Amino acid sequence: MAILETRQLNKHFGGLHVTGNVDFALEPGEMHCLIGPNGAGKSTFFRLILGEHMPDSGHILYDGSDITRNKPFERIRRGISVKFQVPGIFKELSVRQNLEIALQHHVAPLMLHEEIDRLLEFLKLSADHMQLAGNLSHGQKQWLEIGMAVALKPKLLLLDEPTAGMTPDETFATGEMLQELNREGMTLLAVEHDMAFVRQIAHQVTVLHFGKVFAQGTIDEIVADERVTAIYLGEADA
Amino acid sequence: MSHPSRFTAFLKLVEGPQTLGKGPKFWSVFALVLLAACIYPQFADSYDVGNNVYFFNWLFMAMGLSLIWGYGGALSFGQTAFFGVAGYAYGVLTINLGDAYGLTLVSLLLAVGISALFAAILGYFLFYGRISGVFLGIVTLSVTLVLERFMAQTAGPQWAIGKARLNGFNGMGAMPSLTIPWPGGAIVLYPDVTLYYVTLALLVSVYLGLRILVNSRFGNVIVAIRENPLRAEMLGYDIRKYQLITFVIGSALAGLSGVLYTSWGNYITPASMGMTAASLPIVWVAVGGRSDLTTTLIGALAVLIVFQTLTIYGSQYALVVMGALLVITVLIAPRGIVIALSDLLPARKSKMKGEV
After folding, report:
1. What domains, with CATH codes, occur in chain A?
2. Where is this protein chiefly located (chain B) (predicted)?
3. Distance between the two ends of chain A, CA-based, in angstroms?
């Protein structure tokens, strides 16, 4: 059974169809990338899954139950977590406190600091744990937010351009982080533009174009697909 | 203090990343200030002591605003609305119930409860209606001014609840002071030394209680919502519920101020909810440093005393100074003057970097 499934999902703003009848399924344990040119509807698709936007029609199923009408925080409590494109961190609070807030509602108080230290190490942020989060470098902010998203121990992690603005080294390290999470059983769905990164992590790739599923397959199949190259990869992968 | 582990446990509760001031140094100063406040009535005229309770009365409202605005990030112009609602409620209740059998204390609780209920209803529509930012300020200010206008037109004899006449613009008076039933004669809390100590004890309890609250898990979520509401929600928190609870607690503290003020002066008027009154709490809290309870307390007390001193030379003139003070704070020390001054101290500076 798919962990996440959308059936005939529709959303339009005024006359503009941002997602049109999207049928999409994600298997548990999969690492899946969503690609597509700007305006393809990737971010809107994420917002629909998270409940930030309500669809005009269609259904979203998560882990076997219909969550189409659930509030965002209810979806998070069921095991979905997200890392936003622009780092969504608490800038005026310390790195440690950022993680504490993410961990506190499901980790016992006595275990809290041990768990924070473990996460800090995973995120390579141990040395900076007392820094204000706003003072971190851009890449570190991205990692901190990945850490906050992972702290919830989600079954499904959504990542909106997790490597945006990172150096190639940071991007590669992020890929390794995500692969480790995936080995531990987490399902990942990422919007990503960096094709090298997609090649590093993705088992399956879905191409969105004008709000519709345009193509689906392994990265090699997608790259070999001339229709895809025509709309997108031709200029992006050059 | 006799039990060191218990004292450490207490410190663990009242200290944390959300409050400045920690360690033996801070608590020693705290103890000294408290001691000075305790012995002050021994060296002053009891009439002056009773008058100066006036300053304490407002500090509950200031701390409430610090919680809602400084910690929660929601600018409420409605503090005086809850102040007025609770003040009038206390008047109506005590005029009807009288001051025997501790009924004034019951009235205090009921009046604060009524202002909290009012805050819960208003807050529900504000936060679940997703009103935020400047619009929250506009709506709460409007509600406050509507209440003032409404109370100002209640001069006629038809505007009475039981024995209590609302009295329109002139305000309601002659309600009994808070009275504590006591074997051998009730203690009436006139503006005097006893009231001073009762209010001081209440002030210290609320201050410490709020320190515990903001350093708790609940406090973590409040500041998280201030920093980034979307992220807080996407960590699984029902942020509207947290915002509403914060708003109700902060507003109820304004209600407590209202009751204490009304009981202290046996008087409440619609002007307590007017435009001027509604904006003053913003000045008190912003000047000291709204994002911390201690700086809020110091700032609010200082501004109140300066304002009161200036009023002797003319109240309009004092208001202009208050306005200028707010502008200067916003331009030069947006986090508050007390925080800006403590940043100038080199020891503090390194501490802030390392520990905050």
Report:
1. 29-48+70-236 (3.40.50.300)
2. membrane
3. 37
